[in-house]
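User: I'm putting together a small comparison set for a docking exercise, and I want a reference complex before I start. The sequence is below, and the ligand is 3,4-dihydroxyphenylalanine. Could you produce the 3D structure with the ligand included, as structure tokens?
Assistant: Of course. I'll restate your input first, then give the structure tokens for the complex.
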Amino acid sequence: MSNPIEQIRGEALQSLASVTDSETLAAWRGKFLGRRGAVGKLFGQIGSLPQAERAAFGQQVNALQAELDAAFDARETLIQSQAMARDLEEGDIDISLPARPRRRGGLHPSTRTHREFQAIWADMGFHVYQSRDVEEDELNFSLLNLPPHHPARDMQDTFYTADSRVLLRTHTSPGQIRAMRELGAGGSKPIRVILPGMCYRQEQITARSEIQFTQVEGLAIGRNIRMSDLKGTIAEFAKRMYSPEAKVRFRASYFPFTEPSMEVDVECFLCGGEGCRVCKYTGWLEIAGSGMVHPTVLRNGGYDPSEWSGFAFGMGPERITMLKHGIQDIRYFWSNDLRFLQQF
Ligand code: DAH
């Protein structure tokens, strides 16, 4: 008796050689490679063979299937290129027609602002330090000078995990401790980093507040870093981010992890400081919290505050993106509505 595998192989390859159109090709595939096709039947026979012959037979059927798959692909390519050549010759394809525009995906508006931030800070000598979203309570609060029961903890309603020592970070500031400990080499090296990332707060979701949002934290540690460095650095950032004429102002404020602390405003870039609805007729827009790193925080990061000093700041890219594009509702950012996303 002739070998059934060889027989099917011969039959398949012979009939494939005369296939010249894609319908016949599809029928060929069904006949030999389909679920109930000839090769499938061979697989079905394996079970009825004597145990000793099964492995060898199975291997041969596998090899046949691979060979026929490859032959199919080659034939398909050939038929397609012949059809294309024919259409070109008969003039069915008009190669002078303009191409149909293809819709490309776009970058999320927050991603765009983030990249803009990163490029500007990179030019100014800050590299990116990626901290973590799931953080320890100790770093998110205590080591930043917010001990348990500190009233400022109430400003940041927190998502805790089942383990109450672990939470979703409420701000990017805990990354300051990680960066100092990891990059500072035991408090002996200067640092200049930005720390971008998602933050989470258990808040009522409204047009102005979301339970998730991004921040970009900045941190510079060195010997003799002074408040004038902070002011000059932020003013330079504003010039690069908004306009070469951008003016900034600093208002005294309070954050537990900085002393002194300041809020930073930039002259409203929508009305040029004249006063408009967006800046609530003040002529200024708040863009950052900032300050000189508190000595306790420096110590927690491994630095001796009598020799080292530093500044820090935190910015909210969503807010800046909203101002820039006149976006009225922060909920658009994470609702994945294409009608919103496609506008950027
Ligand atoms: N972590 C603060 C917040 O989420 C923002 C902030 C303020 C960060 C002052 C800083 C800073 O680094 O110096 O509200």
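Residues 109-341 form a domain with the BirA Bifunctional Protein; domain 2 fold (CATH 3.30.930.10). The two ends are 70 Å apart (CA to CA).
User: Thanks, that's exactly what I needed.
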